[in-house]
Amino acid sequence: MEFVPGVFCDNTEQRGFWFLFKKGKVLYFGSGDSIRFPELLRPSELGLKTTEPVYIGQLNGKNVFTAQVFETEEPYHNCCGVANYPYALPRDLFMAVGEDMFNLICRAWHISRWTESWKFCPSCGAPMRPSGTERAKVCTSCGRTDYPLLSPAVIVAVTKGDRLLLASNSNFPAGRYSILAGFVESGESAEDTIHREIMEEVGIKVKNIKYFGSQCWPFPNSFMLGFTAEWESGELHPDGVEIIKADWFKADSMPDIPPCGSISRKLINNFIKTKGNCNDK
After folding, report:
1. Rounded Cα gap, residues 236 and 233, in angstroms
2. Contact yes or no for 64/56 (Cβ under 8 A)
3. Fewest CB within a 10 Å sphere: which of 128, 249, 256, 281?
4. Between β-strands 16-22 and 62-68, what pairing exists: parallel, antiparallel or unpaired?
């Protein structure tokens, strides 16, 4: 797959790919490993009414658009009028569509949601219009320019010898564990956030912080900065509010962990791989 980001579309009368969202779920066709997305001139071909379409680039030489479906609308087959096209959470499609397509879906969802939510100027309240030169909106009155909202956050794989720190968040499904994460606060570096979040959530100090990688995670608008670190001192004491359980796990005794697609799973898999027992499933 070859995706080229873009802001302006030269030919809106060319059939293109559409990522259509309703309540955070994307419309798709097919099943199993044969997932695909609508290739249309416009969503009305499926009997859908949507928000104003947004062009996001080209995929394999074809235009790519995104829009949000009005909640009262249901897709249907033109031939029989039966509403049977499903929607799914993007993360639930990761294994079927692969990382590159998953990232494109995430890009589409982020841009679509921001476009719809950022209609009025936060400074003066006047309507915002698309910029004529970049992915931004400009106030029609005071000229303020705003870009798609991103919230930086850190996510850290902390090790203690041959064990990895995993915690169960109060918002997780029962029995699910993952690595610790938290949003960067004003005035903090990523390293400051790591020290603060880990101390607040489980009561330990860490050292040897190293950058691992990043991921845009638009649920809702996070930009995740991944790190590894080592335990320095302290005993685990979950805060009991956000973190309800925390423990150290060996590579061959992992609990229920996040599915593939997230940087949290990549960090966990990296730990398992270094111990010689990687399982990507």
Report:
1. 10
2. yes
3. 281
4. parallel
